[in-house]
Design brief:
Layout (H helix, E strand, L loop, with lengths): L12 H14 L3 E7 L9 E7 L2 H17 L6 E3 L6 E5 L3 E7 H7 L1 H4 L5 E2 L1 H8 L2
Parallel strand pairs: 2-5
Antiparallel strand pairs: 1-2, 1-6, 3-4, 4-5
Length: 131
């Protein structure tokens, strides 16, 4: 089991998605979407998808997510794409974060691919957890 601070040991996927959403909002992510893929994907419960205005902004968003979650002793299982800054994938187990350069996001259209997944209202999600 990962070593987490006591208050984060029982954190559920929805709460982790809320934390990721808050960090994304704080770092000026664009077009933030949270998809509930429970029952549709076997590898995660939530997708947090966002866009950055430039490759540097994409890298900054990803670095902010990793840094803040690391401070909470929540470490990612896997990440890729940070160097290029076109599509950064951060795997936190219950939550997979996709940070796209806006043009790249349109090309891959994850929201269209996972159209059956319910979208979660960002304001409600963040308010539920009180982040």
């Amino acid at each position: 089991m990962r070593k987490l601070k006591k208050e984060h040991r029982q954190r559920e996927g929805r709460e982790l998605a809320a934390v990721c959403a808050r960090i994304a909002l704080d770092t000026k992510a664009e077009d933030l979407v949270v998809l509930d893929v429970r029952g549709l994907a076997s590898f995660t419960d939530y997708f947090v998808i966002m866009s950055g205005r430039s490759t540097r902004h994409v890298q900054g968003l990803a670095e902010a997510l990793e840094s803040e979650l690391s401070a909470k002793r929540i470490s990612g299982k896997h990440s890729e794409g940070l160097r290029e800054g076109l599509w950064v994938l951060l795997d936190f187990g219950e939550v997979v974060v996709h940070v796209f350069y806006s043009e790249t996001r349109g090309f891959y259209d994850l929201e269209g691919l996972w159209h059956d997944a319910p979208r979660i209202d960002i304001d409600t999600l963040v308010a539920e957890v009180g982040q």
